Amino acid sequence: MRPINYTAMETTERFARICSATNEGMNEGFLFEESLQYFIEQEDAERYAIEIGYAGLDEAYDDDAYCYTEWDWEDEGEWYEKHDGKWYECTEENLGLGLFVTRRTEISNQ
pTM for this one? Predict the structure, then answer.
């Protein structure tokens, strides 16, 4: 396994979720909570609503199948970063005495 360059990682943008359609990081968008599907674009959310049996996004909304929301990765306690084309799930651990360490785990199938 190739070592990770942590210095370069420190400047990477952090995201609370990853879009199910585009594989892009996101901090706001459409959430289909039951299936944990996330979408940045309305067109992708519409396509998914139809795929799961709704006539469209309006019907899915009326049935409480999804909501549009914002996430703050700082409030979540975990976030996602992309490095060299790979996504990592990250958490920050308090070691005490004001010392913190960031744990990064590569996500497969993204």
Answer: 0.78
